[in-house]
Structure formats: structure tokens, C-alpha cells
Amino acid sequence: MIVSAQKAAELIREGQVVAIPTETVYGLAADATNIQAVRHIFELKGRPPDNPLIVHVAEINQVASFTDDRPDILFKLIDRFWPGPLTFVLSKKASVLDIITAGLDTVALRMPDHPKALSVIKKTGPVAAPSANRSGRPSPTRPEHITLDFGDDLPVIDGGPCSIGLESTVLDLSGYIPTILRPGKITADQIEDMLDIKVLREPAGENQIRRSPGTRYSHYKPNASVSWMSSIESIRSYQPDTLYIFHTQSPKITDDNIITFEGNYLDFAKSLYDLYRTADKRNYKKIFIEPLPDTTLSPIIPALLNRIQRSVSH
Ligand code: AMP
Ligand code: MG
């Protein structure tokens, strides 16, 4: 059910869970100081308890309630990228609820760049908010995606389609070397260029699972099976119950199951999860995606590649 930002703030203060728009994806928000409310997020999503939540703030001074960490680079990055799609992982204060951090000694913090999210959080104080989908499903980038996963009873603020459409970059500042745990719109290159320091890209395998437990789970999956296409396959084995997504090639056939982005990778990122859900609504069996090119073509490509790769059926 659609509610105003004012009503959403009242509900969150009462301990309820409300879906809020951000520039990345919609989040399922609860008061970050209310253990029952945060537990309700995990129940609603069916989220494994070892997958921690990001705390969303609306004012920089709220950071101090969650961490005593004060690395210089944190404030330089905040200055440049907040509000925006960059989440910091920092050592947590003892007072931060264990349910939010899944028992880790770190906490993830972000200030979202969406006027309705900021207006709610200014009224309620910080909220814990994972993506507003059932666990494993594609993240919601439009209000109707939330209704598909949770029905109409869940209160939702309508903020229109998300402008980025992929989840935030997660940057771990709790260790020796800043490390990207999840790629997003803000890239390791951008951070390196700005600070003149080395940033590690996603740690691989066990190390990543230890530092960011959520990455062990399958993510972002539609019901249709997702695969990378070969160009020959795309033309020879054209099937009507399949969604074909191209970003450089323009196939000869036009149909409503053939999508082309013609080099607009930001648009592709913004549309990806909506296309996944469109394929499911039409009961398509398969989604074929043209393989992504060299990552230097657009800064969003590492994030797109990461999300598509995680949704590919094995
Ligand atoms: P979601 O909110 O659904 O986009 O998922 C939050 C992401 O942030 C997951 O990949 C989590 O593993 C990651 N995350 C949240 N808190 C932490 C933390 N304290 N340390 C490392 N990763 C975290
Ligand atoms: Mg999620």
C-alpha cells in the first residue's frame, strides 16, 4: 500500500517496516535501534541471519552513533560521494545491534541520495535497510516490484523508478587496505584517483565470504534462467519465450522480447532488474544477455557484470 513520507516516518517510529525509495534500489527500512523491528525485516525477506544490513543515515553526525573510526579518507569520501551510492564498512560501536551486523565487529553505513528517503530518515533517525525483495529475488527498482514480492499490505513510499537501479558500492575501510566488497556505480578507479591510494577489488572466495557474508548466497535471480549469449545463438535459435538483451549489437529482428541499449550502459543498469521481472511476468523461460565488453567502456560495467554473473544459472 502506498503511503506518504510523513506516514512512513510515523510507522517506522512505531516499530513497523516500510519500503523506501533510494537512488540505487528500494529498501526495506526499520528503526536501527529497535531489535524487534529489525528482526521483522529478516522474517519478511526470508533473509539468512548471517547476512548483515546496511544502516542508512540522513546526517553526517549520525555516523558517530555507529562507529568510532575516523580515518581521514572516510571524511574525504563522505564529502565527495554522500549522499550517494557508496557504503562504508567500519568497526562498529558496542551499542550497534548484533542483528544488524550479523554478529560481525563491523557495521555498514550509507547516506542515500533520494529526497524521500532523506526526509523519512531525518524524522526517524537511522534505519537498517536491505533491498526490498524476498531473499534471492532481483532487487526492486519500482514500487510494483515490491508488491510482487510482498503483496499489497506492506507500506511503500512511491519514489518512482530508481535512477541507478543497482545496489551501492560497498567499501570496507575497517582493514589495512580499502577494499571493494561489492562493485557499484562508484568505482575503485574513481576512489583511487581521488585519494591517490590503492584500493583492492572484491576479495575472492573464502576471504570474501568471511568479510561480506551476504556474498555467499545466490542473488538477483528471476524465475527465467539467465545466460550469456553467443552472437550466433542469438540469431539462429530465436525463440518467442526468451528475452534477448543486447547492448552493442542490433539484431535484424525486432519484437517486444528483444531489447537493445545501443551502448547506453547506465540505462541498461537502471533497467536490468525490471527486465528480469518483466520476463517473469510474461512467463519466459530464458533470458539471454550479450556478453559485456571491456570494463573501461563505462564505469557501471563492473557492477553490471557482477550482478548478471550472480544471476546466471549454472
Ligand atoms: P542489501 O542491503 O540487500 O543490498 O545487502 C547488503 C550488503 O551489504 C550485503 O552484501 C552485505 O553482506 C553487505 N554488508 C552489510 N553489512 C556489512 C558488514 N558489516 N561487513 C561487510 N559487508 C556488509
Ligand atoms: Mg539485497
- Which CATH class of the largest domain is shown? Alpha Beta
Helix-residue proportion: 25-40%
Which segments are poorly predicted (pLDDT under 50) over 5 or more consecutive residues?
A: none
Small ligands present? adenosine monophosphate, magnesium ion
Number of helices: 11
What Rg is obtained from the alpha carbons, in whole angstroms? Answer: 19 Å
Biggest sheet character: 8 strands, mixed
Number of domains: 2
CATH topology of the largest domain: DHBP synthase
Strand order of the largest sheet: 1-2-6-3-5-4-7-8
Element-level helix/strand string: HEEHEHEHEHEHEEHHEHEEHEH
How would you describe this structure to a colleague?
The chain is 32% helix and 15% strand. An 8-stranded mixed beta sheet has the order 1-2-6-3-5-4-7-8, with helices on both faces. It folds into 2 domains: 5-209, DHBP synthase (Alpha-Beta Complex), CATH 3.90.870.10; 225-311, no CATH class. It has 11 helices and 12 strands. It has 314 residues and is α/β, with parallel strands linked by helices. α1 (5-13) packs parallel to α5. The two termini are 36 Å apart. It has helices at residues 5-13, 35-45, 72-81, 98-101, 115-124, 143-150, 188-195, 205-211, 231-236, 265-281, 301-311; strands at 18-20, 27-31, 54-56, 86-91, 106-110, 127-128, 169-172, 179-182, 225-228, 242-246, 258-260, 286-289. Adenosine monophosphate is lined by residues 51-52, 54, 89, 101, 104, 106-108, 130-131, 167, 170, 181-182, 211-215.
